[in-house]
Design a protein that fits this description.
Elements (H helix, E strand, L loop, with lengths): L1 H18 L2 E2 L10 E6 L4 E11 L6 E14 L2 E5 L11 H4 L2 E4 L12 E8 L4 E10 L5 E7 L26 E8 L13 H5 L8
Parallel strand pairs: 1-4
Antiparallel strand pairs: 2-3, 2-10, 3-4, 4-5, 4-6, 6-7, 7-8, 8-9, 9-10
């Protein structure tokens, strides 16, 4: 009898928890939306950010974030281009978009409007990096992109497979200042030809 009562209480508690809405407070995400660029005579790194939200069928998780892709040209060669096919998906955001970031916190007082926690899916290096996007107000605004090396990540290693080599190496710049060149982002899921490709010709890159 005691076991039955305990089971009922556990089920009731689980039901109550599932009915609660987990809300993350955010602020100033619109300031991060747009196209940002780092540019030299031979290199161009651009990120394209658009606001979205985490959705789950139960509706008990609410969190706004910015998502996007990037294109990197180094020494006039295209290293990475993830500006295609970025759209809503049922998959986890970091599997769909290389970049996701938010300043979401459990209380409003904890939110920093000028800094986002960054998650970067480096598909070429096959690893996830974490860091920050720090807003530098101005006209035009700037953004400090920083990927931080962390050795506390966990890996799944199947029996017989070698252990991964953990190293601070990325396919994109890890600590740079970008300048906003547009407040709007073309429809996600397109190649952004009007903004991205034409300007990359400035560094002599030939597009495929």
């Amino acid at each position: 009898m005691k076991n039955i009562i305990l089971f009922i209480l556990l089920m009731a508690s689980a039901k109550l928890l599932s009915a609660q809405t987990l809300t993350f407070y955010t602020e100033n995400l619109d300031a991060y939306v747009g196209v940002w660029e780092y540019h030299t005579a031979t290199d161009t790194f651009r990120i394209l950010l658009k606001k979205g939200k985490i959705y789950n069928p139960d509706g008990n998780v609410r969190k706004e974030q910015v998502y996007g892709g990037h294109r990197y040209v180094k020494n006039r060669q295209v290293i990475a281009d993830y500006t295609r096919g970025i759209a809503s998906s049922r998959n986890r955001n970091y599997e769909v978009t290389p970049i996701s970031a938010s300043n979401g916190a459990f209380t409003e007082s904890e939110v920093n409007p000028n800094e986002l926690g960054l998650s970067f899916n480096d598909k070429l290096k096959d690893k996830i990096g974490y860091g920050t996007l720090t807003l530098i107000p101005g006209n035009p605004a700037q953004l400090h992109w920083k990927i931080e090396f962390r050795n506390d990540q966990m890996f799944l290693i199947l029996e017989g497979d070698p252990e991964p080599v953990v190293y601070d190496d990325w396919s994109v710049p890890k600590d740079i200042i970008l300048t906003k060149i547009s407040d709007t982002v073309p429809g996600l899921g397109t190649r952004f030809s009007g903004i991205l490709d034409d300007d990359l010709m400035d560094v002599g890159e030939t597009n495929p």
